[in-house]
Batch of 4 targets.
Target 1
Amino acid sequence: MKISETGKVVSQKEITKGIFDLVISTKIAELSKPGQFVMVYPKDGTTILPRPISIAEVTSGAIRLVYRVVGKGTNEFSGLKAGDAVRLLGSVGNGFPLEKAVGKRAVLMGGGIGVPPILELSKELLASSKIAVLGYRDNDLFLKEDFDKYIEVKVATEGGSAGTRGNVLDVLRAEHIECDVIYACGPMPMLRAIKKYAEEKNIEAFISLEERMACGVGACLGCVVKTKEKDHHSNVNNARICTEGPVFDAREVEI
Amino acid sequence: MNTEVKIAGVSFKNPVTVASGTFGSGMEYSEFVDLNRLGAVTTKGVSNVPWTGNDTPRVCEVYGGMLNAIGLQNPGIEVFKNRDIPFLNKFDTKIIVNVCGKTVEDYLEVVEKLADEPVDMLEINVSCPNVKEGAIAFGQNADALFNITNQIKKIAKQPVVMKLSPNVTRISEMAIAAESAGADAISLINTITGMKIDINRRTFALANKTGGMSGPAIKPVAVRMVYECANAVKIPIIGMGGISNYEDAIEFIMAGATMVSVGAANFVNPNTTIEVIEGIENFMREKNVSDINDLRGCVR
C-alpha cells in the first residue's frame, strides 16, 4: 500500500563523505517491507521530480534513508534538519521476497550505495543461515557496524584495503561460501555478474534494480526493465521497476 | 456556481482532466486521487497492437521540467478494451481515449475498435512519426493533419479531439487544418522536443537522444499557443502544458481553453488535479464568477 504524506525529519548526519543518514518520522514506516523505497519530493520548484530512495531501516514510526548526494535533489535533501517537513510517497515497490529464504542458506549482497537497501532485509530475513556480503570501494565501510548487530558480515573492497580484494562474488569464492538463494542490490555490473553466477550454480537470485523514474506509481512507464516473458500488465516484454520491481528474479529480466 | 463545460455535446462536471501519458489509465493514481472528482480521465495513448516503447533511460529532469521518450509503450487496444475501459467505467467521470499509430490505417483500426465502447471522446495523438511518409509527424504538416482528421471523422462514433504538436512554425495553421477537416475540438500543447547531454558520461541523458519536454517551464509557450489557436478557430480547445496549480489552469481558460489538462504536475504531486479543481472553485467564489464559461477567452 502506498500513501502520500508529509513526514518530519528526526535527524540527519553525514556518515561518510557524500553519504547521508536521514531519519524521517512517517506513517509509511508501518507499511514498508525490506527492499521497498520511498519517493522523496524536493522543495525547489525547478527540481520537479521526486527522487526514489531505498528504505535502509524501519524503526517504530520512522524510516531511515541512507543515500549518496549525486545531484540537485539529493543535495537539497542533505540540507534537511530535525523538525523539517518533507513530502513523501511510499512505500513503493514489491520488496524482497522473504519467503524464498525459508529453510535455505541465504547470502545478502550489497554493493556501494546498494548496501543500505539490504540492511532491513538482514534484520528480518528468516533463513536456515544468512550472511551479508558487502562490497565497498575502499576501507570506508559505512553501515557495516549496523549490519554486525543482525548478521554475519563479509566484506570486499576494490583495492583489498579491507576484507577480500575484489567484488562480492570474489568473497563467495575465497571463503568457499555455498548458498541456495541470493538477495542483492548494487551497481548494474555487479547485478549482471550475480545473475550469471546464479544461473551457473542453478540457484535463485533476487536483484533490486534502479532506473530513472518520474511518477513512482506505475503510470508514466519511465522506469522499465526488459523481461524474458511478456509482462502481465504491459502486455510487452517490459516490467515497471517501480511497481513489478524493484526486486526481480534474476532469471526473469534481461539486464 | 457552475463549473460544468461542454465539448461537442459532451458535458464535463468541471474543466479539469489529465494529460495523456501522465496518468496511465487512472488505475495507478486512483490510490491517491478520487477519480469521481475529475472532469475526465484522458488515458495513455493506445495503438492497434502492443508497443514496446524505447530503451531506457526514458526520462530525465531539466530545469523546471522534464524530458520523456517513453516511445508510447502500451498494451494495445484489445487489452485496453478488456481491462482499462471497464475499470474507468466504475467512476463517475468522462473518459477521453488517446489514440496513437504509425500509419493512418493504424489509427483507423483503433478508432473503429472503440466505436461501440462506452467512452466519451477520442483524442488523436498526431505527434507520432508517419512511417509511410518520411517519418514526419502527422501533426507537423497541415495536409497530413487534414487528411488523418478527415479519415478518422468519417468512421469515429465519438467526438474527435486532435492533439496538436507545438513543434511547428505556426500552430494556428494546424488548428485550422484540424477544424476544416471536421475535428470536434483540439488539444494543445503536446511536449516540446528537447535534448539533454550528460557532460560527465559524454552522452545523451535519454536513450532516444531527444525527448518531449513538459513541466512548468513550458507553460508560457503553451498559453501563447492556446491563445493563438483560440483566435484562429471556433472549435473548443483543451489547453495544457505546465499546469501545476489553479492559477495556471485559469490562465489557459482565459486564453481560450474550454478544458485544461494536468500533466507532469501529477508526478510532482499526485493530488495536483484535486488541488486545481478546488482552487478554481475558490477563485470563482472570491471573484464572484458564477459560471466558469464566463472566464473563457476573456483576454482578447
Note: Chain B is about 30% helix and 20% strand.
Target 2
Amino acid sequence: MSEGHRAAYVAFDRFPSAKGSAVHIRHMAAELFDRYGGGLLCVLGGGGLPAYQREGGVEIVRFGAVVPNLLDRAEAFSAWVADRLAPHRDTLRLCHVRDPWGALPALSAGGRLVYEANGLPSIELPYAWPLAAPSTLAKIRDLEGECLRRAAAVVVPSQVIEAAVTSRGAAPERVHLVPNGADPVRPGLPRPPAAPGRYLIYVGALQPWQGVDVLLRAFARLADLTDLSLVVCSSVSPSRARPLRRLAERLGVEDRVTWQHTLPHDEVAAWLTHAELSVAPLTASPRNLDQGCSPIKVWESMAAGTAVVASDLPVIREVLGEHGRLVPPDRPAELARAIRVLLEYPEAARDLGRRARQHVEEGFTWKHARARLAAVYDRVEGH
Amino acid sequence: MFWGKQKAAIAGFHPLHQALVWQRGFSATQPAAGWAALIASLHRHAGLVRRAKWALPPRTLDVLVPLILELCSDLGPKGTLTVAADLRGRDVPGKTGPSRDLPVRPPVRSATETLTVDPWLRVRAELRDGSILELLVVDRTRERRIAKRNPRGKYKAKRKSKSIQIIKVRRRLAKGAQSRVPAAPPPAWIGVFVREGERRSVLATAKLHRLPQSGQEQVDRILTVATEPFRWTPQAGTGQRSES
Amino acid sequence: MTPCAVTTGFFTLGKCGQMAVAGCPACGRALCADHVADGGLCPECAAARNQFGHPAAAAAYRRRAHRHRTAQEYTDVGWYAGLDTYDRAPFDPGAGADQDYLDDGADALVDS
C-alpha cells in the first residue's frame, strides 16, 4: 500500500482527452505533483480508460460509475472523491480542484484548497442544459460562492473570470491570475496528409457559444475563393457536429469543409501550423462576457505562428492583445471581410503570426503558467 | 398434532430467534459472531415457518437486522453488542399510562387523554475506537377520546391519536480521545448535548413528529441521528486501526 | 506485508489491515483472503456491479446507499444547496441541448 499522498488534483472531466481542458489539467497537475513528489489525480473515466493507473509517484483514479443524470453524477463523483481522499487525510497538504463538486469533498479532506475557476457551472450549465430552472442555477451559484469563499486561493485564467469570482464572494487578495498558455510548436512539422490546399482552421469544441455557425456563414461569403477550404478540428465526437454539418449543407459549403474529430493534440498542432488563418469566432453570450474563459485554441494558434482572427471580446483582447485581428462578434459579414483582407495580404498575416508566437514565447508558455501557479502554491503554503 | 413440523423448526432456531417468536422480544449481549448466527437463523425463518401467528414480529427483518449488521461492523474484536428489543407493539399491558381528563365545555361531554410509551429498542455497543454507543428508540402515542352530545341528544364519540418517535443516541468517547466541535451544525431536527468529564459524552436526540413509514426510513433515521456523535471526533478512515 | 485496504465499519471507518493475498482487478486495491468478493473483485467494486454475494459487498452497498439517501441531512458532507428532484430533472440525459446522449466525455461542468 502506498504512503499517504500530500497533494491531490480533482477534476470532473475525462483525462486524457482531446479537449483543451485536458491540456490544461495535464500542465497544472504536473506542477502540483512535481512540487509534492507525486499525488492523487481524481478524474472521470470511461472511453476505455483504466480505472486505476500509477505513474511514478502519481496515482490516477478514474470515476467510472454510470449515472445518467448530470447532477447525480456530479454528486456521486463528489462522494467518490471523498472516499478516495479519506485515506490521505493526515498527509494531504494541498487539494487543487476545478469545480464545486470537486471542492466539496476536498474542503473536508484536510489540507488547503486551491480552486481553479476556469468557468462557473451556474453560467455555463444552461447552455448544455437549457431546461435548468433559474432557482436551480441560483443554488449552484450559492454552492460556488461557498466553495470560493472557503478556498485558500482561487486561480483564474482571465480578468473577466476574476471579476466573476470576486462578485461571488471570493476575497480579492486570494484570487490569482494564471493565464493559460501554449508550448511553441517546433518548426518543420509535416503537413497533414489529409490537408486541403489552402485552408482556414477552427479548433475546439462545438458548443453554441463557440460561434462555429458564425464562422460557417462567414465562410459561405467567401465562395469566390474556390481554392480555400475550412477545416474544423472538433474536440468532440462527430454526433455533436451534426447540426453544424446540416448548416453547412444549407449554406452550400459542405464540400469545402473538412471535419476532423478528436485528433490527438500533436496532430492538431500540425494542422494549425499549415493553416492560412485560425479563427476563434466566440459569440457575445453571457458565458463569454460575464464568466470569461481563456480559450486554449487562441493560445495554441498563436504558439503555432498562425495569424488569428477572433471576436472582439474582453477575454480575447486579454489573450490576443495586438497580435491578432479582432472583429465584432456574431457578424459573419465582418468576419468574412477580415479573413479576406488577411488572405490578400499574406505578409501581414505572417507578420501577425510571428509576433503572436513571439508574444507567447516571451511570457505565456506553459512553463510560465506553471511558474505563476507555483507562486500561488508558495503563498498558500506560507500562510 | 397441528403445525408439528413448523414447531420443530422453531425449536431448531437460535435461542434469541425463538424468543422473538414466542415472546416477541429479547434482550441479550453477545459479540459480533453471536449476532451473525442470530441473523443467519432469522433469514431461515420465512422458508420454514408459514403460520401467521408465529411470523417474525414487525420491524425484525427491516429494522433490527440492518441495525445489528451495521453496528457489528463497528464492534471491536472483544466488543459486545447489547440489544434489548421489545417488538410486541404498543397495545400491550404496561405500556399505557393512566388516562387523564381534559377540561371540556358543552357540547363536549368528556375528553380523556392517554399516553402510551413504547421503548421498543435499546442498544449498547462497545466500538473498536474505545467509545461506547448507546441507542434508545421510543414510540409515544397520545390518544384522545372525545364524546359529545348535540341538542337533540345524539351522542358522538371520536378518537384521535398522534404518534411520535424519540431517538436518543449517546456516545461516550474513549478516555483521552480527541474531540472537536463539528464545523457545521447538525440538521435542525437533531439536538446535541455534550457532557464533559473524563470521558466526554455526546448525546444526540431527535423527536420525529411522524413515525417512519418504512423499515428503511426507520433505519436511516436512527443511523442519521447516530451519525452526529461521530462527527465530534476527527473523521476516521485514516484510523487504520488494524483488528489483528 | 501489504495490508488489506478494504474499508470496514459503518461509523468508525477503518481499513481491514490483514495480510493481503490479492488485488482487485478493477481498482487495484490490496485484498485479504476474507475480502475477496465475487469475481475476485473488492467488495466495493462488486457492490458497484450489483454482486452482493459477499457480506462485505452487501455492507459496502448498504453503507453507500445510506450515505446517498441521507446526504441531504448533514450540511457538512457538502450538500449546502440541497438540489431536489425538480432541480435535477433538467439534467436528465434527454433534456440536454444536444439530444444525442453519448458518453463521449464532453459532459464537464466547465470548459476551459
Note: Chain A touches chain B at residues 4, 86-90, 108 (CB under 8 Å).
Target 3
Amino acid sequence: MNTTFVERKQITEEITADNTQLSKQTKISVKDLNLFYGDKQALYDVSINIKEKEVTALIGPSGCGKSTFLRTLNRMNDLIDSVKINGEIIIDGDDIYRSNDVIKLRTKVGMVFQKPNLFPMSIYDNVAYGPRMQGIKNKSKLNKIVEESLRGAAIWDEVKDRLKSSALGLSGGQQQRVCIARAIAMKPDIILMDEPTSALDPISTLKVEELITTMKNDYTIVIVTHNMQQAARVSDRTAFFLSGEIIEFDETSKIFSMPNDQRTEDYVTGRFG
Amino acid sequence: MVVRENFENSLQELQTKMTEMGELAISSLEKAFTAFKTQDIELALRVIEEDNEIDDLEEEINQFAIWLTVKEQPVARDLRKIIGAIKISSEIERIADFGVNIAKSAIKIGSEHSLISLTQLESMKDACINMLQKALQSFIDENIVLAKEVGDMDDVVDEYSNETYKQLTTYLSEHPEETNQLVQLLFINRYLERTADHITNIAESAAYLIKGRRYDLN
C-alpha cells in the first residue's frame, strides 16, 4: 500500500495515541459494590475501572448515588454507623475495605469538598497541617511543602505575601484552591472532588477547572459535578449514575456527543433530572 | 412539566424555518426550469430577484442557531440538530443559487429554437426536487431510510448527467452553429448534477444527526 507522508504521519500519531491509552493503568478498580444506609440500598452492583492520571467525572441527578460512591473511595462512609458495604474496591492492588489502615488510605486518597472548609488558622498552617500531623517538624522542609502545594494549586502568587494571615480572609475561590493545596500537601495519588465549584463564582470556577486540567499530569482525579459543561470541559471519562447504578461509563466526548443509552442522552440533554 | 419546553419549541421553530427555506429552494428550481423550458424571460428574472429571500433566511437560521447554542449549551442529539441546521441551510442556499444559474442560462438562450428534447434535464430536475424533499424529511423525521434513498437517487442523476453530456457533445460536433445554446445546456446539466450532490450532503447531515457518525452517500 502506498501512503503519502501526511498519511504515514497521521497513522503514526494514531498508533502513539492508542499506546498512550493502553499504557494508562487502572488506578481504582471497583467490582460489584453494593452500599446500604440501614435497609435502604443506595448503590447497586457498581463496577468501574478508573484510570491513573485521568479525570473521571461522576454525573447524575440528585440522590443517584454519585457522592455516596465517591465517599466509598476513601472510606468516608465509615463515619456513618448504619452503612453496610459489600463488593470490592482495589486501589493499587489493595482491597481498601480489607485493610484497616484508613489513615494510610486517606493519605493516598485526598478529598476536596463542596464548600471550602479551611481551619480558622493561617494559610501556611492550613497547608502545613497534614504534614505536621505526619510528624514533619523541620521548618525548611515544611516551607518547601507549603510552597510546592500552593504552587500546585495555582494560588501561590496570590497568597505568597500573606501566608501568615487567616485563611478565612480569602475569597471563596481562593479558599477552595487552598483546600486543594492542603490536599496536595499530603502527596496523595488520588484526589476526590465533591462538587468543588458549586459554591464558587464563574471566574473562580474556571480557575479551579484550569487547575484540575493541569493536576491530572500528577494525580488521578475523580470529580462529582452537577455542572455537565464542567464534566465535558475537565474530564477524560464520565460515568452516568441513576438510582444507584452506573448506566453508562465511557469517554467524555462519547457521553456528550453520542451516548449509547437513551437515559444518558435524556440526562445530558436536560430532558430530565 | 416538560423539562426544557422552551428549548424544544425553539428546535421546532428552527426546523420550521428550514422547511420554509427548502420550499423556497424547490420553488426556485421549479420556476427556473419552467422559465428555461417555456423560454419565459420574465419568470427567469423573477427567480433571480427572489433569491434574496433565501439568502436572508439562511442568515436568519444561522443567527438563530448561534443564539440557541449560546443560550442552551446543547449536547448530543440537540447539538447535532443545531449543527445540521447550520450546514443544511448553507447547502439549500447553494442549491437555490443553482436555480438562479439555470434562470441566467434561460435568459442567455433567449428565444432560440429549444433543444431540450435532446437531454434528460427535466428528469434530472424532477429527481432533484424529489431528493430535496426526501433529504429534508429525513432530517426532520430522523428517518435514515430516506437519507439512503437520496444517496441512491444521486447515482441516477449522475447517470442522466453522463448521458446528457454525451448527447450534447455529439450533437455539438455535428451542429456547431448551435454552440451558444448547447454550452448553456451543458452548464444546466452541470448545475443539476451539482444540485443533486449538495442535496446528498443534506442527507449526510441527516444521517449524522440520526446515527452520530459520518456517512459518505456521494
Note: The interface with chain A takes residues 3-4, 7, 73-80, 212-213 of chain B (CB under 8 Å).
Target 4
Amino acid sequence: MKKEIKEEILNNLLSTGADFAEVYEEKETSKNYVYLDSKLDNIDYCESEGVGLRIAKDDEIFYASSSSRDKDDILSLADSLKSNVNGKVIYNDVKLNKEERFTQEVNNNGYDEKKIKSYLQRLDKRIRKLDKRISQVGLRLIVTDKLINVVNHTGINKTEERHSTLMYVNAIFKDGDKSSNSSFSFGECKGLELLDKNIDKEIETMLKYGLDKLYAGNCVGKEMPVILGPGFGAVIFHEACGHAMEAEAIATNASVLCGKIGEKIASDKVTIIDDGTIDGLWGTTQIDDEGNSTQRNVLIKDGVLVNYLNDELNNRKLNMGLTGSSRRENYKYAPVSRMNNTYLQPMDDTIEDMIKSIDFGLYAIELGGGQVDPETGDFNFSCKTAYMVRDGKIAECVKGASLIGNTLSILNNVEMVSDDLKYDVGFCGASSGSVPVTTGEPTIKVSKILVGGEDSDN
Amino acid sequence: MITKLIKEAKKNNIELEVLTNLYDVTSIEVLNGKLKKFDINRDKAYSLKALYNKRKISLKYSDISDIPTIINRIKSFGDIIDNDNVDSLCENDYQAEEKKRVEPDYKQIKVDLINLCKYKEQYKDIVNIYFGLNLSNSSTVIDNENHHLQDSTTMIDLYSSISMSKNGVVKTKYLEYYDKEFNVGKLKKKVEKAIKDLELEFSATSINTAKHRVLLTNNVVNDLLYTMSDMFYSKQIYMKVSLLKDKVGKKVFSDKVTILEEPVNDKFVVNKHFDREGTLTYNKIIVDKGVFKLPLNNLEYAYKCGDKPTGNSGLLNNLHLECGKCSFDELLEKLDNGIIIDSIQGLHAGINHVTGDISLQAEGKLVKDGKVVKALNMILLSTNIIELLNNVIEVGSDLEEFGIASSSPSMLVDNITISGSEE
C-alpha cells in the first residue's frame, strides 16, 4: 500500500481517541520441498499477503487483520476497530517518516529447482546406504521469503526483507517389531547456500542414536541428576524461564518471575541471553514486528534476574524500556514480546566430570519439545535421545523419558556448565503465533529433575 | 476469477480444482474484569490442486489474480516433482442449506465475561481470571470444471484460565470447549468446578513410581485420542510409520474400545459435509470392539491401498470413543483404589508416534475406596498407547466436545505406570 493510504488508515484509526495505532503489512512466499520414499513427492507452495491493524486505548487493545489489501476493505475493518474506542482525539494528521528499508543479502549458490532435487536425491541415497535397518527417510526443505512493513502513529515506517532456509532430516529404523526414529535439522536466515554445509557429523550422530534407540529399554522414573546435551537442550531454559520473562506474562502478573528483578533466582552458573542480532541465526531479525531494532538482552546474569523481554504496549505498564522483542507469526496476529535466539552462556566444566559425578542419573543428550506454564513455572519436556548414567559411566539407551519440574527449582539446581555451546533451530508457539527461534546451550548438569519413565526400580 | 483460472488452466492441459476458505472470526479476551483484547480476522485463502503431467501439484494463494504466473508455476513444478499421481478431481456436488446467520450480541458477551471475573472478589486467592471467546464463521467452497461444493460452519470456542496463589505457590487451571452458541450458565458451571479443583490442588503431592488402575477423564482421553489419531490413516500405514500397519481386520485394542468418526451426526457442534478434496463425508466405525476396521483415507491413499475414500483429506470431524453405560461417578466407584488423571501436558513432544510411547506430565487425584483422598501433581503418565487401549476396563457415558476434530468420554484403565517421586 502507498504511504498516503497508510496515513489515511492511521488517521482513521486514531479518530475516536486511540492512543496507539499501527498498520502492519506483509507478503510471504514459502516453498516446502517434501522428499519422501526416495521421491520428490511435492513442493508445497504458499503465497500469502495481508494487513494487520492495531489500536490501543489505555490497557485495552483492539486488533484486526485481513488478507485483502483493498483500501475500502481495510478502511471498513478500521471502522470496526475504532468503534470500540470513544474519547478525545489525541493524535491527528499523522505523517509517516520516509521508509527505512532493511535488506538481507542472500546467496543461493546456484541452487535452482533441479539442483535442489539432485541434492535431496543424493542425501536420501547416502542415508539409506548407512544401515539396512533404515526403513524410511524423510527430507523437508523449507525456503521462505518475507517482506514486512510496519508504520505507526509516531511516524515509524520501516520495511524488512527476511529470508530463511530450513532443512529437516528424519530416518526411521526397523528391526522386526522394534522401531525408532532419529532426526536432525539445520536452518539459518540465509539462502540456499545453507545446503553446502557439511553435515557428516550430524548424519553419523543420527545413525548412532537411531540404532541405540531401536534397542532401548524403559527409562526409570524417579528424581535424579540429569545431564542435558548441548543445543536443543536449551529448550529447557526457553520454556522454563524464557516464557516467564516475556512482558505479556509479566505485565499481567501471570509469571512466576514477576517482581523478581535484581533477585538471585538461579545458580551462579546461569547467565541467559536473548540476542536477536546474531548474524544468520534462525531467530535473527534486524527489526522486530513493531519496527524497533532487535538487540542483545541479558536476562539472567550470574544467577540474578536483570531484565524481561518487552514490547511497546506492555512497556506502558512495565516502563522498563524496549528490548526489540515484539514478534508475530504473520499479519493475523497482534505482536507480543517473544524470544529470538536464547542461549545459556558457556563455562568451563567438562562433560567427563559431569558423568563421573553421577552414581545414578540420566544423560538427556537430545531433548524434544516441551511446554511451561509461566504463571506457575511448571514445565515438562520430552527426551528424544537419553541414556542412563550408572556409577559414573554412560549406560543403556532408554526410551520414553521426560522431565518435569519447576522453573525456579531447576534454575537453582544447575551445577555444572561446559564450553560446548551449540545452537539449534525451532519454532515457538504462543499468543502471537509460531515464530522461528534458536535455543543455544552448552552441556549442563542439573542436580535433580523428576524423570518420567515406565520402570520403577534401578 | 476462479472460473477464469480453471478455464485458463485447461487450455494449458492442467486439470484444476480450487478450494476457497473464508474466515470471519471475532475474538474477545477479558482479564480480571477488563477487556484485554478484541480481535477481528477476515481472511480468504485459495488452495489449488492441479493435475498436470501425471503429477499432483499443491499451491496456496491469498490472491489468484495473476493467472499467467500461477499457470507457469504449476507447469514448472509438474515438470520436476516425482509423485506418481493417482489422484482425480472431485466428482461430487454439495450445497449446504442456507442458514440465517444470527450475529451475536458482542457487547452483552463482553459484559457476561467481565461479570464472571467477579469470582476474583469472592475467592481472594484468585490472582488472575481470564476468559477468551472466538466466534467463528467459516465457509468452504470447492470448484472445478464440472462440480461445485459449498458448506459453512458457525461455532464458538471458549477458553479460560484461572490462577490462585496460596503461601507463594501458584496453581492454574485451564478450560476450553466448543459450542453452537454462547451460554453463560454453562461456562459458569465449568468455572465453579475449576475453582473447586484448583483449591484442592494446593494440597497436591507426587507419588512414587508404580502401576495403578487409572481413571482418565474425558478431556485427557480426548487429548490422547486426537494426538494419536494419525495411526488410523492409510497414508501412515502405507508409509509403514503407523502403529497399526498390517493390522486392518485384526484385534488391536480391548473389546471395550469402539472408535467412530461422525461428521454428519448433528448432535455435534460442527458437521463437515465434505473434505478438502470434495469427498462427501459419512459416519463410520474405525475400530469396532477392539478390531481395526477402517483406515482413514484421502483420494490418493484410497487408490494406493485399493480402498474407497473416506472423506478424510485434511479433515477429522467428531472422532470419538463410543460411550459406555457408566457415568463418571460409576467409573469412580469401579476405580475403587487408584488414580484419576484429569490433566496432561506436553502432548506435542511427550508422545512418540512411531513407537506409541507416552511420557506426559500429569495432574490428578488419589482415590481410596472410591473416594478422592488427595490431589496429585508432579507425576507422569508413562505408558504406550497400544498398551493403554488394551487395558481398558470400562468407557464412560460422559462424552464431551473439546474441538471440531474429536470428543470423548472418560475411560477406566488398568495397570498403567504413573511415575513420580514422593517427598
Note: The longest helix of chain A spans residues 113-128.
